Every structure is written in C-alpha cells, then in structure tokens.
Amino acid sequence: LCEQTDCNRVVDVGSGQGHLTRFLSFGLGLSVTAIDADPTLVAMASKFDGQLVWALEKEKQKKAVVKKSILGVIKKSKPINKN
Ligand SMILES: C[S@@+](CC[C@H](N)C(=O)[O-])C[C@H]1O[C@@H](n2cnc3c(N)ncnc32)[C@H](O)[C@@H]1O
C-alpha cells in the first residue's frame, strides 16, 4: 500500500505489543508511530524493541569483527608467484 501511494509514514493505532510496528519499521524501513491504550502492552512493545535493537547491534558487531579478521588475513598473505 505504501509503495502504491508513495508514502513512508504510518500510524499504527492499537499497536499492542508492536509486532506489526516492528515489521513495518525494521523490516520495511517505514517511519512508524505506534499508539495503544494499554500501558502494559506499550511497556512490552518497548521491551521487545530494545531486545531487537540489541540483537541487531550484536549482529552488526559480529560482522565487523569477521570483516576485520578477513582483511587481516588478506594483508598478511603473500602474493602468489605463478613462475
Ligand atoms: C488485537 S490488538 C492489536 C495487535 C497489534 N496490532 C499487533 O500487531 O500485535 C488490539 C489493540 O488495540 C488497542 N486499543 C483498543 N482500543 C484502543 C483505543 N481506543 N486507542 C488505542 N488503542 C486501543 C488494545 O489495547 C489492543 O492492544
């Protein structure tokens, strides 16, 4: 729907624990404002958001370490002499 209407902002009314919100935001890159009447669900949504951000950051750091070690191996290896 956002592609068809050239829109990138969404208001998720009745967002509950924020499952749809997180998918639209982290999965599709949309700017999402989530609203829910139940403070317990809002707190849970915030907790899940935090866990997702933490997991994504951890994954990013892991990839950076792998990239760094690959670059280290490439730098240390000698060029192959074909003669
Ligand atoms: C079936 S749940 C929605 C689940 C959520 N969209 C998801 O993806 O996980 C419906 C939600 O609407 C919220 N709600 C109901 N009436 C509301 C109102 N007037 N204003 C804000 N939220 C409301 C409820 O608290 C409940 O969390």
Automatic annotation (TrEMBL):
Gene3D superfamilies: Vaccinia Virus protein VP39. It comes from the Eukaryota. Residues 2-64 form the Methyltransferase domain. InterPro entries: Methyltranfer_dom, METTL25, SAM-dependent_MTases_sf. This is Methyltransferase domain-containing protein. It comes from Oreochromis aureus. The lineage of its organism: Eukaryota, Metazoa, Chordata, Craniata, Vertebrata.
